[in-house]
Amino acid sequence: MGIANPLKVVLADDHPVVLAGLVALLRRIKSLEIAAVCSDGDSAFKSIVSLKPDVACIDIRMPGLTGIEIVQRAKELALMSQFVFLTGSVERDEFDLANECGASAIFHKDTASEDLLAWFEERVSQHLRRDPSEIANSLGAVRSLTVREWEIARLVARGMTNKEIARDSKISEGTVKIHLYNIYQKIGVSNRIELANYTIHNLTIQR
Questions:
Q1: pLDDT for 155-186, tens place per residue?
Q2: Do you know which InterPro entries this protein is assigned to (predicted)?
Q3: Is 12 helix (H, G, I), strand (E, B) or coil?
Q4: 32-38, strands of its sheet edge to edge
Q5: What is the pTM of this model?
C-alpha cells in the first residue's frame, strides 16, 4: 500500500555512481517517492514537466540541458517544483546563477549526504503539514538549519571570514560557501551582516 501524499522527487545526474548513491540515500526517508531517475538534462526536463515533482534534485552541469537551463525553462512554464543543485565544483558563477534562477539549495557531491538528507527530511515534514505559513515562520526557519549550518552562522556572527571558518570547522572554503548559500535560502537573508544579525537575534530559539 502506497504512502498518502508523499513528497515526489525527480533525480538527475550524469554520473551513475552519484545517481545510485542519491537513490539509496533518499529511499531512507519515509513519505518520499522517487518519481524518476535521469542521467541527462533533456530527460530530466521532460520528467519534470510530465510528473510535476515537488522537488527536482539535479546536477548543475549535465549533457544536454544544464541544471540552470532546466530551472529557467521550468520557471517559464510556471512549474511549482523546488530545485536543488548538485555540484562537483564550487565556482563563483554557479552560486550567482543558482541565486538568479531561484534554486532552493546547493550541495557538493562529495560531501552532501548528511546535509542533503536533513534538507529532504525537513521538506517532507513541511509537505505533510501542508501549511505554507509554517515554512515562512521565523521559528520554523531557525529549526530547519542543521547543526553544521548553525555552527557556521555563529562563526559569521563572530566576524570570521570564510577562510577562518573553514580552518576552524576543518572543511574547505568551497564547502563553507555552499553552506552559506543554503543558510541564506532557508532564512531569507542576502549577506553576512543580515545573517549575523539574524543569528544573534535567534540564538535562544535554535534547536
A1: 999 999 999 999 998 988 888 999 999 999 88
A2: CheY-like_superfamily, NreC/VraR/RcsB-like_REC, Sig_transdc_resp-reg_C-effctor, Sig_transdc_resp-reg_receiver, Tscrpt_reg_LuxR_C, WH-like_DNA-bd_sf
A3: strand
A4: 32-38, 7-12, 55-59, 82-87, 105-108
A5: 0.77
